[in-house]
Specification:
By secondary structure, the protein is α/β, with parallel strands linked by helices. It has 11 helices and 10 strands. It has a 4-stranded parallel sheet with strand order 2-1-3-4, with helices on both faces. Strands 6-5-7-8 form a 4-stranded parallel sheet, with helices on both faces.
């Protein structure tokens, strides 16, 4: 690539030459100093990308009192967030940062203290939280890290943001109605999960809007056994039926209940889930479900923190983090 020799690590001098700016400008772009025009910033970032330049964090932090480290804080109950954290960490790494994940106490009072000690440690330039937390009062302003507190999850790590959007329920039911289903059952999740409540509400609203028949809302926990029992309890003449389950485990229980009654899936009964668990593609039948792009949620959240640290325009909110995956568990109802 032009004058860049393989094997030698590109320097900020190489980036400055390629972008046609001074070395100081390059360093300002990477340390997030304000006052650089967007066009210049773009040019420097493009040159850096072409040369595969990574800022040298140790040298940088000596000059600017920056640490090159970011913290992601999560409540202890949030350790199921691996894909979200992976997405966040990869994005930070690409921007030249190291990320540490810090778990906060499960009690909200202690959590505020935990957060204050992370903020005051002077070790982090930015702190990202996926749950709303109160910002601690900084003791000294120059070392106070940028805190970005999102509302993607509540303090029990139940989804409240992008992942509680239940529009895919309506999309699945519309398709089922188009292919001939008129009778539906919803197997709901627990009422203390905002996403489960949103899916139930979307189910009921879609029944009304499309003039469909609902044989009820069953369930109320995340147990496949409960889902199985709900299907076992239906009258013999219930099929043809479409079952909208609040997640894949409930869908699996529902399929088991239907098959054990001699009902075919699909055919007599169509079933949809939610989460796209790894197993769901391998069920018999493979399960129609909703994929949630947790990595992209993590990545876009981290991009917003980076923008706040650099004082640049935050990226647009990610659209379409969820999509319906159509598989074998859905088909036109068989005439009985």
């Amino acid at each position: 690539m032009g004058d860049h020799h393989m094997g030698k690590r590109p320097t900020s001098h190489d980036v400055a030459r390629r972008a046609g700016v001074s070395q100081t400008t390059v360093s300002f772009v990477f340390t997030g100093r304000s006052g650089i025009s967007p066009a210049t910033r773009e040019r420097v970032l493009a040159a850096a990308a072409e040369l595969n330049y990574r800022p040298n964090l140790a040298a940088r932090s000596m000059r600017t009192h920056r640490t090159g480290r970011l913290a992601v804080v999560i409540p202890v109950s949030g350790l199921n967030l691996f894909p979200v954290l992976e997405g966040a960490a990869a994005t930070a790494r690409d921007a030249g940062y190291v990320v540490e994940v810090i778990s906060l106490s499960s009690s909200p009072e202690e959590r505020a203290d935990d957060l204050a000690s992370v903020a005051e440690s002077g070790e982090y330039e930015g702190i990202l939280s996926f749950t709303p937390i109160r910002a601690p009062q900084p003791t000294s302003t120059d070392s106070a890290p940028v805190l970005l507190s999102l509302s993607e999850f509540d303090e029990n790590m139940h989804a409240t943001g992008a992942f509680s959007d239940a529009r895919p329920v309506a999309e699945m039911m519309e398709r089922l109605a188009e292919i001939g289903h008129r009778r539906f059952l919803h197997i709901a999740g627990p009422p203390d999960y905002p996403a489960a409540v949103a899916r139930r509400d979307a189910y009921l609203a879609t029944i009304d809007r499309l003039g469909l028949e609902s044989v009820g809302v069953a369930g109320g926990d995340w147990s496949g056994v409960t889902a199985n029992r709900s299907v076992q309890a239906l009258p013999d003449d219930t099929p043809p039926l479409a079952i909208i389950a609040a997640n894949d485990v409930l869908a699996a229980g529902a399929i088991r209940g239907a098959v054990s009654r001699g009902w075919t899936v699909p055919g007599d009964v169509s079933v949809t889930g939610w989460d796209d668990l790894t197993m769901s593609a391998h069920f018999i039948p493979s399960l129609t479900t909703v994929f949630q792009d947790r990595q992209r949620l993590g990545s876009s959240s981290m991009q917003r923190l980076l923008a706040a640290i650099r004082g640049t325009e935050p990226p647009a909110q990610e659209e379409a983090l969820q999509k319906v995956v159509w598989r074998e568990s859905v088909a036109p109802p068989r005439a009985r």
